[in-house]
Specification:
alpha/beta; five-stranded parallel β-sheet; 6 helices; 5 strands; 15% strand; globular; disordered C terminus
Length: 159
């Protein structure tokens, strides 16, 4: 059975990009525009526990933090990696994400290569049953866009 990746994002563009990218890489993908729809589907008979969930923070109805808190409270999701995918890039947002159980924090805009690397990294850990602990900061895929931005700032250049 192919690994299942869930995407919860209110942007149709983001959902479409992730859906195409992940399906081409061989993953099964379920996309939802808000947390209520996603949680509703997870409570149906045909639902399967995702291996990894991408969650936007700024969602209608339930924000991403609340969705992650609800999922982490259920033992069935202990081996599911939760990855924040958000435009918010503040230290407090990242800290709050860690506190509610996020394993990684990716910022928009993102590269599809970063998405695929993150999925591969966490699925390897799920297969090894080590997912209960987040990856060390040195291996987080967060570095992609943010690190490039930091380097441009240090050099005094703009994107």
């Amino acid at each position: 059975m192919r690994p299942l990746i869930m995407v919860i994002d209110d942007s149709q563009v983001i959902r479409t990009i992730l859906n195409i990218c992940l399906r081409r890489a061989g993953y099964e993908v379920m996309c939802f525009e808000d947390g209520v729809q996603a949680l509703g589907w997870l409570n149906t008979a045909q639902a399967r526990i995702p291996d990894l969930i991408f969650v936007d923070l700024g969602l209608p109805k339930l924000d991403g933090y609340e969705i992650m808190r609800l999922l982490k409270a259920k033992p069935a999701f202990a081996d599911t990696a939760l990855v924040i995918l958000s435009q918010r890039d503040g230290i407090l947002d990242r800290l709050k994400g860690r506190l509610v159980g996020a394993h990684a924090y990716l910022t928009k805009p993102f590269r599809t290569q970063t998405i695929l690397e993150t999925v591969q990294m966490y699925l390897e850990r799920v297969n090894g049953r080590e997912i209960t602990q987040p990856l060390p900061p040195s291996r987080l895929a967060v570095a992609g866009w943010s690190q490039q931005k930091d380097q441009r700032v240090q050099r005094g250049t703009r994107p």
